Amino acid sequence: MGLEERAAAPIRTESFRATRPQIVGPEVPQAPFPIHLEGAVQRGFGRGGKDLGCPTANLPDESIAPMSSVTDPGVYYGYAQVSREKEGRVILPEEDGRVLPMVMSLGWNPFYKNERMTAEIHIMHDFKADFYGHDMKAIVLGYIRPELDYTSREGLIEDIETDKRVALKSLARRAYEDYQLDPFFDLNRSHPRL
Q1: Residue 31 burial by CB count (10 A; 0-12/13-18/19+): exposed, middle or buried?
Q2: Suppose 150 and one of 91, 114, 155, 166 were both cysteines; which one would form an S-S bond, judging by CB atoms 3.0 to 4.6 Å apart?
Q3: Among the options 38, 120, 147, 161, which is catalytic?
C-alpha cells in the first residue's frame, strides 16, 4: 500500500477493545521488521499534544517510504532516538538523546480526515523542550493494530493509551530490547551527533 492509496478505516468498536491483546508480535521480530526510518522532525498538525495528550514527532513524507511500501496503515512499536544537536549546536540534554521506546501511527488519521499519509512517532519520554528540526532515527519492530476511525475523541485517546501499554509490554522481551543497542543508533554518548 503506497502513500497515495487510501482504504476506508473500520470504526473502532467496544468488542474490538475488549479483545485487544496486551502483548503483540512473535518472540523475535519477523519480516518485514525491523524497518529503519530517519529524517528531520517536522511540524505536524499540532493535534497530538494538544488534542490527544500524546505529543508526536512527524517524519518527512520521503522518509516513510521504506515502511509504507511494505506495511499497511496502522499502529506500530519500536525504538527511536532524537539527535541532541541542531545546526551544529547541542540543544537537548543527554537524557533526551537516549534510545527510547516509541509507538507510531502510520496512516491517514481518519478521525481527522487527513488528505495524506503521515508517520507520527510518540516517544515515551518527557522531553524538556521541543525538537523540531532535529534528526530522528527509528527502528520499527512490530505491529499493534490496524488504523481505525473513531466516533469520539475520547475513544481515540483510550486506544492511544492502550497502544502505549501494549508497546511497552511487547518491547519488554529480550529480542526486542536488544535493538536499543542497534548500530543504526548513535550509541556513543560522548558525541551528540546522530
Answers
A1: exposed
A2: 155
A3: 120
